[in-house]
């Protein structure tokens, strides 16, 4: 996690800071240290993917990116074909810098394009123009062919369905094989939230956003994209390995201020998966890394049920859903059918065609995927109930 | 200038401050900003008259309202009104009163500071010994009350009188000493009347001045009428800035009909915008009291307060009672003390009472032995005896306030007397459902309600249950404020969190109702211009039209300038219909309402709209309908969800996302299903709470 940005975007509530001057050398050293410490702690042998997120990691120097990758490769096995993604903001002169990142080991780019409408970009507080966005996209595709993703937002205040679909169509002319459609969510504490609260801006209309989403995903399907997750679309198999790991409840280490991780600290002899959060403020985080080798602020052991809940809630975000094999990795005794097969409410969801439970596993239908959060309100309590009925009361400490 | 004298009393400050002998004595908490209270406006809805026993109402409608609105400028002067309840235009009786009380202008009590040290003899430190009340013959006793519109300074004047007579120490902290409940101090209203006996030396004579504080709201008008029946006179306090307001008028007539001497006191003359002359003229015009009889004071600064005491002695007659007759005592208030049982506040009309006497309640015919008698100072101060004309308290082993009902007469065993007129049991006017927010708190709430009703026999309690809200109670209150105060006391004193449903009024048969008033099915009864910029309007309203939000609407329409008062005016017939609310065709029991036929459509529409706002979207469409019989009169639709899924869910979002989902799933368990529609509990509450008839 690279915690710095050039400017605060009006919608963003991430852990980011607008620096007066970054001591990049110190930051780099700490990222390297923490990566090494946490890799050792996890006992991980092989790293499948690395994702440089932020903040705006494309503001970091390519040397820093290279140093971190170097450290990973030294501590664990980092295969040559591992996915190494960098989040990048469009700029007016993207060329040489993107090439340097490529040389540093980055092999996939995720471009925060957000919109092709300059008014909307200003509303979002972005520093780039639509023109910058397309130029950056083209340059990225030249450098990383087939490995470029773009983000497009929908459901902005005052945004209308027609013009937005126009943007999507235009983007389809320029984009590579991966696209993410994100509905704007107004987060407390952001400038946009305040403006909507004060009535300066109209509140986004959820009805219109739903319309954009439904029409958008249909357009992308037509264009040969597979909606492999709620907000993610890929063609030619260009799925993001890294993000796929999140939805499959794989292990991941969070490195940098405020980064989240979920892994079993096997290097420390533990067999319990933990949710970990690193210290938020860059200065404090750096101090801690220098003193202890890492800046982990919070460690929460995840219980077996909690893990299953995550398997369920995250797995259903993907188009394949939860296969029986996948579920069995986490819960060998209780099958998906044991849990959900007999429940009346689940049955209703199956009958309504929102959910599918068959020989492959449990997954959302095309219609169901759009209302997954409503489905989970039925599925999660059912999982809890089945869990409590099946397992004898948990042994203390176990 | 009076501050010089303060040290004489200050040394006695400590013991008084400890105070809490009973349950609800939070004395020195101070009065917080009223703006904190959500239902602020209704707080001010405090009149004092409803039904005065023995005085038949002339109006035969449902509810008379008094509105008083001062004008902002000439152009809108027409909208300004003030208005009175009943008995308006009894010029003859008014004149009779005027002669009775016209004793000429009160002499200024310039010697007051010098006379203070003599008062000190009776201040609290001396009360360790039991007082001999026989030292106060009837002719040296004055029983009086202070009445005023909300915020005109009643309690502040009481504080000054208490200080002046050395009853309480003169400190900076004497703020509404008689308002003991936290709710009273916060809202600046008096709920539970408090009484104080003041000992005052004037021209060589020792006087016993009994200040009988009264609750200031129509909800408690029965209590007020009982308190007043123990008085011979009242101080009618009017704000020098605001002038006569709705309750001023109501209070005046209450006192006037009880044939009490009325001493007008114009308060707050220290304020920048004070216009005492204008108020004098108003008083002369409206009440027919010569303007030179008004006493102009500033209770806050203590200016001219001595002359109020002087006027009390000179203008209020002593009680007409007989010490020689057998005991006849009026119960005008009662409180419950968990250690001593019921403490009944009594006024003796005849005879003597002392410890060990056997007394009988005329209402219950139960016999008790008196354990303790005394005066209120304002804390209980035991005395040997109480004599006719005096006011004090009595403890006689009564275990429940119902045994000491307000208005009841006490007499000596085997010496029965004619009970004092006017007694009646409290009759609730407003009903509301009360439910614990969480059903697991049912038992706590139950015990809190039981404890609180120990002190307030006028609340009726019936167990009730609602499909949406679970087990609870249906409570009957004397009025809206009474209900809110009860609720607030539950929250403040018992830390109980409750859901209160929309209050309803009793429908015996049926009820028949500027724009606001017309929309409220009102009938104009009277209109009187008090002066060039204030008018008083009198209307007949169905109680159900004003019970919820009339006052809020009135206040906002008049930018806060109008004041309002109401009294009960009996039942009338009206065309009412039962209206059902349906969710996808299934009736919602909680929302079945009785409405006036003409308003069914607008109310039905409003309820549907409200429900639409508070129903979460679901995976299918929800039809919300209002129906009379099989006829649908209003409909709203909650559309099905087309998208409900968090857009971004990556490493950092997962914990948050899971938490949110689990909280929602937990909430879903608490939803009530009506047919296939899931309804959150608070959806009903929102609809019930804010249902308006606009």
UniProtKB/TrEMBL annotation, chain A:
<keyword id="KW-0349">Heme</keyword>
<dbReference type="Pfam" id="PF04055">
    <property type="entry name" value="Radical_SAM"/>
</dbReference>
<dbReference type="InterPro" id="IPR034505">
    <property type="entry name" value="Coproporphyrinogen-III_oxidase"/>
</dbReference>
<keyword id="KW-0004">4Fe-4S</keyword>
<keyword id="KW-0408">Iron</keyword>
<comment type="similarity">
    <text>Belongs to the anaerobic coproporphyrinogen-III oxidase family. HemW subfamily.</text>
</comment>
<keyword id="KW-0496">Mitochondrion</keyword>
<comment type="function">
    <text>May be a heme chaperone, appears to bind heme. Homologous bacterial proteins do not have oxygen-independent coproporphyrinogen-III oxidase activity. Binds 1 [4Fe-4S] cluster. The cluster is coordinated with 3 cysteines and an exchangeable S-adenosyl-L-methionine.</text>
</comment>
<dbReference type="GO" id="GO:0006779">
    <property type="term" value="P:porphyrin-containing compound biosynthetic process"/>
</dbReference>
<dbReference type="GO" id="GO:0046872">
    <property type="term" value="F:metal ion binding"/>
</dbReference>
<dbReference type="InterPro" id="IPR010723">
    <property type="entry name" value="HemN_C"/>
</dbReference>
<dbReference type="InterPro" id="IPR013785">
    <property type="entry name" value="Aldolase_TIM"/>
</dbReference>
<dbReference type="Pfam" id="PF06969">
    <property type="entry name" value="HemN_C"/>
</dbReference>
<keyword id="KW-0949">S-adenosyl-L-methionine</keyword>
<protein>
    <recommendedName>
        <fullName>Radical S-adenosyl methionine domain-containing protein</fullName>
    </recommendedName>
</protein>
<feature type="domain" description="Radical SAM core">
    <location>
        <begin position="1"/>
        <end position="226"/>
    </location>
</feature>
<dbReference type="InterPro" id="IPR058240">
    <property type="entry name" value="rSAM_sf"/>
</dbReference>
<keyword id="KW-0411">Iron-sulfur</keyword>
<keyword id="KW-0143">Chaperone</keyword>
<dbReference type="GO" id="GO:0004109">
    <property type="term" value="F:coproporphyrinogen oxidase activity"/>
</dbReference>
<keyword id="KW-0809">Transit peptide</keyword>
<dbReference type="GO" id="GO:0005739">
    <property type="term" value="C:mitochondrion"/>
</dbReference>
From TrEMBL, chain B:
<comment type="function">
    <text>Promotes mitochondrial protein synthesis. May act as a fidelity factor of the translation reaction, by catalyzing a one-codon backward translocation of tRNAs on improperly translocated ribosomes. Binds to mitochondrial ribosomes in a GTP-dependent manner.</text>
</comment>
<dbReference type="Pfam" id="PF06421">
    <property type="entry name" value="LepA_C"/>
</dbReference>
<dbReference type="InterPro" id="IPR005225">
    <property type="entry name" value="Small_GTP-bd"/>
</dbReference>
<feature type="binding site">
    <location>
        <begin position="267"/>
        <end position="270"/>
    </location>
    <ligand>
        <name>GTP</name>
    </ligand>
</feature>
<dbReference type="GO" id="GO:0006412">
    <property type="term" value="P:translation"/>
</dbReference>
<feature type="binding site">
    <location>
        <begin position="148"/>
        <end position="155"/>
    </location>
    <ligand>
        <name>GTP</name>
    </ligand>
</feature>
<feature type="binding site">
    <location>
        <begin position="213"/>
        <end position="217"/>
    </location>
    <ligand>
        <name>GTP</name>
    </ligand>
</feature>
<dbReference type="InterPro" id="IPR013842">
    <property type="entry name" value="LepA_CTD"/>
</dbReference>
<feature type="domain" description="Tr-type G">
    <location>
        <begin position="139"/>
        <end position="320"/>
    </location>
</feature>
<dbReference type="InterPro" id="IPR009000">
    <property type="entry name" value="Transl_B-barrel_sf"/>
</dbReference>
<comment type="similarity">
    <text>Belongs to the TRAFAC class translation factor GTPase superfamily. Classic translation factor GTPase family. LepA subfamily.</text>
</comment>
<dbReference type="InterPro" id="IPR027417">
    <property type="entry name" value="P-loop_NTPase"/>
</dbReference>
<dbReference type="GO" id="GO:0045727">
    <property type="term" value="P:positive regulation of translation"/>
</dbReference>
<dbReference type="GO" id="GO:0003924">
    <property type="term" value="F:GTPase activity"/>
</dbReference>
<dbReference type="InterPro" id="IPR000795">
    <property type="entry name" value="T_Tr_GTP-bd_dom"/>
</dbReference>
<dbReference type="InterPro" id="IPR031157">
    <property type="entry name" value="G_TR_CS"/>
</dbReference>
<comment type="similarity">
    <text>Belongs to the GTP-binding elongation factor family. LepA subfamily.</text>
</comment>
<dbReference type="Pfam" id="PF03144">
    <property type="entry name" value="GTP_EFTU_D2"/>
</dbReference>
<protein>
    <submittedName>
        <fullName>GTP binding elongation factor GUF1</fullName>
    </submittedName>
</protein>
<dbReference type="InterPro" id="IPR006297">
    <property type="entry name" value="EF-4"/>
</dbReference>
<dbReference type="Pfam" id="PF00009">
    <property type="entry name" value="GTP_EFTU"/>
</dbReference>
<dbReference type="GO" id="GO:0005759">
    <property type="term" value="C:mitochondrial matrix"/>
</dbReference>
